[in-house]
Amino acid sequence: MINGTTLIQRFERFASPQLAEKWDHVGLQVGNPDQPLRRLMTSLDVRPETVAEAIDQQVDFIFAHHPVMFHPAQNLDTRNPQNQMYADLLAHHITVYAAHTNLDTANGGMNDWLAAKMGLTNCQPLVPAGTDPITGAPVGMGRIGNFNGQMTPREFADYCRRLFGVAGLRLINHPDDGRKEIHRVAVLGGAGQDFYADAVRMGADAYVTGDVSYHFAHDMLANHLTVVDPGHHIEAVCEHQLAELFRSWQAENDGWDFEIVENQLNTDPFTFVVDGKENQ
Q: Highest taxon of the source (predicted)?
């Protein structure tokens, strides 16, 4: 049997914390990773409902993408649901670890998973970020690659909607570009509007990212960049991919006999209302 620290050490050779953005808060969030690791849950988010599921499943380690303590607690008043969640984690001896922008940047990580899901080929980093401190290989945030389908922007948007299983999404497309074909695609999981100019510079026909704001959308239109915003939650691809990564390490290491479960809850906070009907 191993403990959480052993898993963390192995993971940080795959996605070093040094790859994280300076503003990010990656790594250990809550708990004691030195305790034995018996049952691990992979999750995009750590929310009160996720923690309730973990307690139900007798999980002792949550491996998440989004940091649970991104903003410091001002007090520990448990009338605040967030603080009660921390208390529940500690009371049930659940360790929480988060790999955020380091997983976004690492080779073989979040953005490679998204690019593979979309069927992109000959991918390269969208926003170069130097080299991996362990391997020395070039790394970067986001990916840009070739898309082999013959789709208009509207068809491509519908393809993304079905692929990522979302009830709706936002398409930003210049009126003059309705019939252009999408052949080169950039993707950046999470909120990637700040990097749309990189997608333009690298010749992307379309850019897939979340949380695009109004004024950025106008700038994207002016640059004739088709943008598909399926939301932040498409990063939930990490729940299965992290589980598969850990299973591959289990096969390589004796004594890695902990159980792995994947979060089953949809933590997307948004619901689409279409013709008076709710879709999520």
A: Bacteria
Distance of CA 47 to the CA centre of its chain: 15
Q: What angle do CA 233, 239, 244 make, to 5 degrees?
A: 150
Q: What angle do CA 133, 135, 136 make, to 5 degrees?
A: 65
Nearest to 157 by CA among 176, 174, 173, 177: 173
Are the beta carbons of 239 and 99 closer than 8 angstroms? no
Which residue is it, tokens 């921390």? 86
What's the number of CA atoms in the CB half-sphere (13 Å) around residue 69? 19
Residue 93, judged by CB atoms within 10 A of its CB (0-12, 13-18, 19+), counts as exposed
Whether the model clears a pTM of 0.90, i.e. scores above it, the answer is yes
H/E run at residue 115? helix 110-118
For 36-91, how does the pLDDT look when each residue is reduced to its tens digit (9 = 90+)?
999 999 999 999 999 999 999 999 999 999 999 888 889 999 999 999 999 999 99
Class of domain 4-103+236-262: alpha beta
Give the 3-state secondary structure of residue 28: strand
Domain with CATH 3.40.1390.30 in the chain: 4-103+236-262, 107-230
Report the distance separating Cα 110 and Cα 241, nearest Å: 9
